[in-house]
Amino acid sequence: MKFSRLCHCMLVAIFSAGAALGASRPNIILIISDDMGYSDLGCYGGEIETPALDAIAASGLRFTNYYVNNMCWPTRASLMTSLY
Question: Does position 20 have pLDDT exceeding 60, yes or no?
Answer without folding.
Answer: no
